[in-house]
Write a structure and sequence with these properties.
The protein is mostly helical. Helices cover about 75% and strands about 0% of the residues. It contains 25 helices and no strands. It has a single domain, classed as Sodium/glucose cotransporter. Helix 1 runs parallel beside helix 18, helix 8 packs across helix 19 and helix 10 packs parallel to helix 16.
């Protein structure tokens, strides 16, 4: 197994040109614009749908996707793609339920919703948990994954400086932190979103190389159809309830927990939608991101499925499958595109989460608690300083991760997400859909939900580490908790709740948008097309399961 990827001079030139273009675009779109709070944190509410779509996808992927998802595809097969394809459920909930309220009420941060619906305590608990999760899991994990990719692909060029692989990883962490932080901290959301647009294009161009070349290589052994007949377990989506990682009962209920929390309530995802120029662009941006999610498994998971055939069933470690395919299949001169694609995924994710973390710290803590009378200029300046602090802290944690490389970072991050998601997904849904939900019910749900999740993982036999099942049962427990506590305590005032509760009117576009966007521009047409494609994919794999049956219990 190659620990490093051989790069030529042309590869290095392509990578350098990409980095210069990304930083240049990040500065160019924000230079000369007055730095207001609205402009810095919400991009001036000028983003079109295609930038929102690319930025939502970019916020959801990192260089870890190339390595970890291919490894999961190698070990478990195409079922790992359901993490992307199941977005049809959560995006539908987001478009019809959450998005209209968020856009029409001019939120800056999502924790604001909890203050309006419940109280300030809920707001601060959620905001603090997001910031800690961003710094300790997403940003640090992304920087560490970037450092690993940097060492494996650029390590040979650094041999004259130091031969220590760990030093190369640390240098990669510093490099990506400085480069991405420079334009993101300077330009805010506008810089982050427009560079995301460019980076998704680069990711598509570079990411498509490995699966296409893998399919070509597979022709020597009969092609994809012969492989599917030979190893049908690698092409199963509906796996037994006893499966260690992807039981179908967990795969198709995850949207209730992490799906709602991550997409509908996490600042780094929703902030893109809040920056839309109007509600039509906001909804179409989410639908556009859904279409992109249909094809991303082809870039991230499918190479791992191909690697099982091309590298053999005994290849270890599985996480090295993607880079090994790059070494074997992609010729020098084009490997620079792969490196650029991995850098694009990493930088887009970093910029999205970094900007959102500084937004939360500035709006929810600095403006709310420390300086309520602060000016736009003071808030922007503090936001930039907060960005520097967050990035430095994340780089420090990434360095700590680099000291224990044997620990599976991907699984750790997923466990964290599935631990904190259920209580918050429940109190957000209850806040919009049930007028009786109150503050005692929300606080009890948060506290008891965390305790239940911990106890389930620790004491339920045979379920240790099966975070999909743990999250689902925790979600059910949280639903019961908020229902019981809210029912037996004082109801919230009607004048506070009624303006927030979802009604069918939220499903309709504002009249001005309906007049402007009709016919083929009707967002509902594209939403139905998106849903239809996903359901057709699942219908195919259901047919495949009946052709190649597996026990379901």
């Amino acid at each position: 197994m190659p620990q490093q990827i051989s790069l030529g001079s042309l590869d290095l030139v392509i990578f350098i040109l990409y980095m210069l273009a990304a930083v240049g675009l990040g500065f160019w779109v924000s230079i000369g614009r007055k730095k207001t709070t609205r402009g810095y944190f919400l991009g001036g509410k000028t983003l079109p749908w295609y930038v929102i779509a690319s930025s939502m996808l970019a916020s959801d992927v990192s260089s870890e996707h190339f390595i970890a998802n291919a490894g999961i595809g190698y070990k478990y097969g195409i079922v790992a793609a359901t993490a992307s394809w199941n977005c049809w459920i959560i995006y539908t909930i987001f478009i019809w339920v959450f998005l209209p309220y968020y856009v029409r009420t001019n939120l800056y941060t999502i924790p604001e919703f909890l203050e309006r619906r419940y109280d300030t305590v809920c707001r601060y608990i959620f905001s603090a948990s997001l910031v800690v999760g961003y710094v300790g899991a997403i940003l640090a994990g992304t920087l560490y994954a970037g450092g690993l990719a940097f060492e494996r692909m650029l390590g040979p060029f650094l041999g004259g400086w130091t031969a220590d692989p760990h030093a190369h990883v640390v240098l990669g962490i510093i490099f990506f932190a400085v480069v991405t932080g420079t334009y993101t901290i300077y330009g805010g959301l506008r810089s982050a979103a427009w560079t995301d647009f460019m980076q998704i294009i680069i990711l598509g161009i570079g990411g498509v190389l490995v699966p296409i070349l893998g399919l070509i290589a597979l022709r020597g052994s009969g092609g994809l159809l012969a492989y599917a007949r030979e190893a049908p377990d690698k092409f199963q989506v509906f796996l037994p309830v006893t499966h260690e990682r992807f039981p179908f009962t967990g795969v198709f209920t995850g949207f209730l927990t992490v799906g709602i929390w991550y997409t509908c309530t996490s600042q780094h995802m929703v902030q893109r939608v809040l920056a839309a120029k109007d509600e039509w662009n906001a909804r179409m941006g989410v639908i556009g991101a859904g279409f992109l999610h249909i094809i991303t498994p082809f870039f991230f998971v499918f190479p791992g499925v191909l690697a099982y055939k091309l590298l053999g069933p005994d290849f270890k470690p599985a996480d090295a499958a993607y880079l090994t395919l790059v070494q074997k299949l992609v010729w020098p001169g084009l490997r620079g595109l792969i490196l650029a694609a991995m850098a694009a995924a990493l930088m887009s994710n970093l910029s999205a989460v970094l900007n959102s973390a500084s937004t939360l710290i500035t709006i929810d803590f600095y403006k709310k608690l420390l300086r309520p009378d602060s000016t736009d200029q003071q808030q922007v300046r503090f936001g930039q300083l907060a960005g520097v602090f967050v990035l430095a802290a994340s780089a420090g944690i990434a360095w700590y991760f680099s000291l224990t490389p044997k620990d599976p970072l991907f699984v750790k991050v997923q466990n964290i997400f599935f631990f904190i998601a259920p209580p918050f997904s429940v109190i957000f849904c209850a806040g919009l859909l049930w007028r009786r939900a109150n503050t005692p019910g929300a606080l009890a749900t948060i506290v008891l939900g965390f305790l239940f999740s911990f106890a389930f993982d620790r004491f339920i036999k045979g379920q240790q580490g099966v975070y999909l099942h743990r999250a689902f049962f925790t979600w059910c427990f949280c639903v019961l908790t908020i229902a019981v506590v809210s029912w037996f305590t004082k109801p919230p005032p009607a004048e506070k709740v009624e303006p927030i509760l979802w009604t069918p009117q939220y499903a309709k576009l504002p009249e001005e948008d309906k007049r402007r966007y009709h016919g083929l521009l009707d967002w509902r047409i594209w939403w139905l097309l998106f849903i239809g494609i996903i359901l057709a994919i699942y219908a195919f794999f259901l047919w495949f399961r009946f052709q190649h049956p597996v026990p379901m219990f």
